[in-house]
Amino acid sequence: MSPSRTSRAVAGLRPERRLRAWVLVVLLVLSVFGFRLVQLQGADAADLAGRALEQRTRAVPLYAMRGDIVDDKGVLLATSVERRTVIASPAAIAGFNKRTDGSPRDKKLGVGPAGAAALIAPLLNVDVATLTAKLTGTGQYTVVAKDVTPEVWQQIDALDIGGIASERTTQRVYPAGASTSTLVGILGTPEQEQKAGTTIYHDVPLSGLEAAENSLLSGRDGLERYERSGGGQRIPLGESETQPAVDGDALHLTIDRDLQWKAQTAIEAQVEKSQAESGTVVVMDKHQRLLAMASAPSLDPTDTTSRNPLALQNTALTQAFEPGSTAKVVTLAAALEEGLVTPASPFTVPDEIDKVDRTFHDSHPHPVHQLTLAGILAQSSNVGTIMAGEKLSQQQLYDYQRRFGFGTSVGLGFEGETAGRVWPPDSKHYTETTYFTSMFGQGLTVNAVQAASVFATIANGGVRTSPSLIAGTSDPEGNYTASPTPSSERVVSTKTATELRQIMEAVVGEDGTAAAANIPGYKVAGKTGTAERVDPECGCYRGYTASFIGMAPSDDPDLIVAVILQDPKNGYYGGSTAGPVFKDVMTYALQERGVEPSTVPPADLPLFWGAQAGPTTSSEDAGTADGTTSTGAPTPASTPGGGTR
């Protein structure tokens, strides 16, 4: 019954009954109110209180500081700095009314969103009208500006504008710039996640150590929840809860920042000069601690507008290539270690040799040479290498290639890291010609760190240690934990390693292929490589991989430098293209580390025997490429006999 009908019904009654009716109506209404009050304060109290608290509660992310990345001396390569995200409550700012100190009450400096924007905009260096639009509305939360320095935020906070606050965030900084970008890596645009009613941003690592060690570096973000008033202000004694952030651990590398810079500038200059597709320099000590890993092209980590996919890679680990003649060191090491040859073993070496159904060539036509084993390596003879290497069985050669690290992942965890490829004799891909081509470094692939590892093993007296990059880590409290000691394995004897170093000294001599890598005052041992390069677009050999890998001082070596240039157009021989970069970087490294010049002259090993009295002409002077036509026309990648230098 409606109230009007109830009133009319009551009015038609006698006075005493009318009074009783009104009392009943009032009691009924009060009963309804009472029941509802009991319901709200009793059964529904907890739920309603929780919903009210939730509406008043604000969740603010507490971002963990990303761990630093430092070099071997503790110099910063990557670090995070505090930044602020300035936020606003437009609903609270609507009532903003600011007067100048001591001015009449009717003289206002700023009113509402426009007045607040006029004060804040100059500090953020933004347009007042644009900022006014952001501050206008009835919402409780809007982002005003990101990546604001603490100093600027302090100036904004001093304005004491109700409805303006900030959230603490971080920004990644790379003090070494482009020189370490392919090693340290970079972060991309943060991804958003909705959590506890707020937006949390997660760093997205794109490359390098930032990606490989992200779980260690990133730490764990926290969250703070607190009560706020209707105007968006924090209630000082209101409910609050904090889950603290846990900062990430720091990485301590074996890298020398100064040497990394030198390697980077040297390879960038040579990539530009030789018009190469890319270039790589690896510097390590004989225990295979990586001191520099430089790749070109690189990028400016602060430039988000241009991202060449190749510049995101650390090509020292991601680029697989046929090593060419630098792999001859493995073949001759195996033959020496098995006692099948000596450095002075004589070989009568023509410019071509028939094996199976193929003809294998040296890099250029020449009369028959009477070379020792040392002469074969100094002259980088493909035919001579086959003559010495075929004393090994297929399984023996493969076993030594594996023991030197070919086909085994370096294990540094970089995105796209390649293990290279070397076929075992029982593989369906292994043919009789594979046996011969792999002796001089074609038909198998490696990355630059693997290629350098061979020479570090020789420098270390025949003991191979797994390459290492991270010396240790430290937690947010500064407690340092050293990385586990890398595993080691003897590959060849000390005697074999010493003989190989002496043989490789001749490579940088006047009768060798890399006079441009010679460093006055220091004995250098090394090997050139000028390998035909497989072009995946055509599945054929087109272009070259030019390389030089060496060590110094060769009588007691501790430093190994590998230089790789992919598809150089302006000169492609390893000795003349990669050799000068080796000399530049190695000279810097020797001087930086205070290595004393050599006092003992190079080993005087005979390169020739019998009637041949003088040096031959090296391919560096001959003007033709290894195993290709003089026109540089593409040849099928499966063609054996394509030589290397």
TrEMBL record:
Coiled coil: none annotated. Residues 621-639 have a biased composition (Low complexity). The keyword Membrane applies. Its main location: membrane. Residues 469-488, 610-645 are annotated as: Disordered. InterPro entries: Beta-lactam/transpept, Beta-lactam/transpept-like, PBP_dimer, PBP_dimer_sf, PCN-bd_Tpept. Keywords: Membrane. The keyword Membrane applies. Residues 279-586 form the Penicillin-binding protein transpeptidase domain. It is found in: Membrane. Residues 62-235 form the Penicillin-binding protein dimerisation domain. Transmembrane segments: none annotated. Belongs to the transpeptidase family. This is Peptidoglycan D,D-transpeptidase FtsI family protein. It comes from Kineococcus gynurae.
